[in-house]
Amino acid sequence: MVENKPSGRSQVVQRQTEEKNQRLRLIRDAALQVFAQKGYAGTSMADIARAARLGKATLYYYFPNKDALYQAVYVSGTNAYYAAMMPVLEAEPIDRLFRTMFRFYVDYMHEHPDFLKIFFPLGRSAPMALLTSPEVQQLSQHHREALDQLLQSKLAPIPAVKRELLMQVLWTFLMGLNQKLLRQIPSAQLHVEIDLINRFMLQYAQE
Q1: Quick one: pLDDT at residue 203?
Q2: Who's near 202: CB < 8 A, 6+ residues apart?
Q3: What is the pLDDT of residues 98-132, one digit of tens each?
Q4: What gap in Å lies between CA 116 and CA 181, rounded to an integer?
Q5: How many CB atoms lie within 10 A of CB 199?
Q6: Whether residue 60 has pLDDT greater than 50
Q7: Tens digit of each residue's pLDDT (9 = 90 or more) over 153-173
Q8: What residues contact residue 133 under an 8 Å CB cut-off, 6+ apart?
């Protein structure tokens, strides 16, 4: 039996692809750190090149400008967050759904504080090109719709009027959590608040 071994040419292409992906991750990681520290307006491509220990020419080879790099950081981080969260929520019963969603968000953002400053609030420091980008708008809509469908399916046994109110409470509370995370409120304190709102939401759902 003859084994199908990769040719020398395909091995070279594979290695080049891996090296390119590693370089892209290095640049995005460095950019995330600098954007979080200095904000979009205060960051230059030279700052990011220094943080990544690369030349500016290398940076411009991968990203034509700062807007494109900021968008790449946002898209990559957003996809990573939802990829981590969705399977967790899918496995949860309704009596743990709200608590798990809030706690996951708090714990994830405490572990990724730089991403929090990019992710929320998007309009505070992001370039206008990102806010109007069709790719970013489609990305946000895709993740929001997927999350909404998951939550609605979990809440299906609850009357529609109550479901709507619960969803309003959920998003309002989540916005409040964002503000407290930016103020660096300890996770333990936020967990107490989460447990309280979770009890309220479950009690309302079961009335």
Answers
A1: 93
A2: 95, 98
A3: 999 999 999 999 999 999 988 876 655 678 888 78
A4: 8
A5: 12
A6: yes
A7: 999 999 999 999 999 999 999
A8: 71
Q: Residue for token digits 């091995």?
A: 11
Q: What percent of the chain has pLDDT over 90?
A: 71
- Confidence (pLDDT) at 1: 47
Q: What structural domains and CATH numbers belong to the chain?
A: 1-63 (1.10.10.60), 66-206 (1.10.357)
Band (pLDDT 50/70/90 cuts) for residue 177 is very high
How far is 14 from 18, CA to CA, in rounded Å? 6
Cα–Cα distance for residue pair 25/32, rounded to 1 Å: 10
CA 103 – CA 192 distance, rounded (Å)? 10
Token pair in block for residue 94: 């309704």
What does the CA dihedral 113, 118, 120, 121 come to, rounded to 10 degrees?
Answer: 140
In Å, how far from its chain's centre is CA 72?
12
Distance CA 39, CA 118 (A): 9
Q: Residues 65-70: contacts with CB within 8 Å, 24+ apart?
A: 66/40, 66/127, 67/127, 67/129, 67/130, 69/27, 69/28, 69/31, 69/45, 70/31, 70/35, 70/40, 70/118, 70/126, 70/127, 70/130
